[in-house]
Amino acid sequence: MRRTLTALAVAALALGWTTACEPPPPPASFTVNVTGGATGDDANPGDGICETAPGNSVCTLDAAVQEGNALGRADIHVPPATQPYNPSVLTETTITGNLTLFSTRNAAGDVQIRAAQLHIATDGQLALEQAGIRVTGTTVVDGLLTFHRSTLYGWLDISPGGVVTMVNSTGTGFGSTEPVPASGAWVTNRGTFIGRFSQFERKADASGAAALFHTFDGGATHLGATIAYRAVVTSPDCLGTTPVSEGYNSLLDCGLDGPGDIDGSSGIPVNDVPPGAVGCGTAIMVDVNGDPRPSPSSSHPGHCNRGPWEG
After folding, report:
1. Which residue of 29, 42, 154, 221 has the fewest CB atoms within a 10 Å radius of its CB?
2. How far is Cα 144 from Cα 98, in angstroms, rounded to an integer?
């Protein structure tokens, strides 16, 4: 018995020594300060320090993403663009870690990040919080992509197994320099797309020729309290498999038959989403600007507006 206890004690001491000698875990949060055209890769991805050279404390957007991918997770704070058309440029466009991009937006539709392409790998997760991203090509999602109070410009292609969620957000194919996809839609969906209290736009340009959603090959599109804005576009918003309605949508020719659904976008009612419906006032308690949902000054107390704006 004494030998057993001694052996256990030695093992415990050895384990403690090993643990004590290990460096502390790297921090989970990296602040990205892209000023004065700062660019460059991370000096040593995975060491828990975001900097382009040892000791220079310059943490670019690319360096933060590289560090987050290497560590497996990161919270990345992106400063607002100093000028409307001068956002931070992301060239490290494959996401393999669990990353969150935070920013401070001045208005819905602000763009803090620009990328030529974006790929969320199978095990990758990317969340945007109060941030706008313009992808001039296509965003391909094999993993998980979420938007909250954020904006996506550019085509979106969801693979089988991929998931995209947009809440209190806006999106459009406008901004991509690529032609309309073969699917004929802003969202080519073979996976899962979820949109709640959001607005998706079709404009009178090349992107306006596309529908909003083309769901097929076993994909599923779920929509609730979501509206479409279309400028001089009268073709259907949805192609392929009919979306699953959570109610109170205003979309054209989508075949929606949930409570409060409207076929079209003219005369969209306000303050008609009941408490609890689509998460009104329960799961979703703010709008795109961070104002309370439902609005305390609502003309229909306790009810929420459709789309991303409350009041």
Report:
1. 29
2. 9
Those residues whose C-beta lies under 8 Å from the C-beta of residue 91, and which sit 6 or more positions away, are 62, 115, 116
* Helix locations, the chain, DSSP H: 2-21, 61-71
- Where residue 8 falls (left for φ over 0; alpha for ψ -120 to 50; beta otherwise) is alpha
Separation between Cα atoms, residue 44 and residue 56, nearest integer Å: 13
* CB-CB contact of 242 with 226 (8 Å): no
Could you say which DSSP state residue 292 is in?
B
Quote the CA–CA distance of 266 and 146 in Å, as a whole number.
28
Q: How many Å apart are CA 259 and CA 277, to the nearest integer?
A: 10
The predicted pLDDT at position 55 comes to 92
Task: Indicate the pTM of the whole model.
Answer: 0.88
User: Would strands 238-240 and 262-263 be described as parallel, antiparallel, or unpaired?
Assistant: unpaired
pLDDT at 19: 36
The CA radius of gyration of the chain, in Å to the nearest whole number, is 23
Q: What one-character-per-residue DSSP string does 130-169 give?
A: S-EEEEEEEEEESSEEEEES-EEEEEEEE-TT-EEEEES-
Q: Which helix (H) or strand (E) holds 239?
A: strand 238-240
pLDDT at 300: 87
Percent of the chain exceeding pLDDT 90 equals: 63
Angle at CA of residue 224, ends 195 and 157, nearest 5°: 25
- Nearest Cα neighbor of 133 from 164, 97, 159 is 164
> HEC profile for 182-231?
CCCEEEEECCEEEEECCEEEECCCHHHHCEEEEECCCCEEEEECCEEEEC
- Identify the pLDDT of residue 16: 37
- Phi and psi torsions of 11, nearest 5°: -65, -40
> For position 77, what pLDDT does the model report?
86
Output DSSP code: residue 298: -
CB within 8 Å of 15: residues ≥ 6 apart: none
Burial class (CB in 10 A: 0-12, 13-18, 19+), 1: exposed
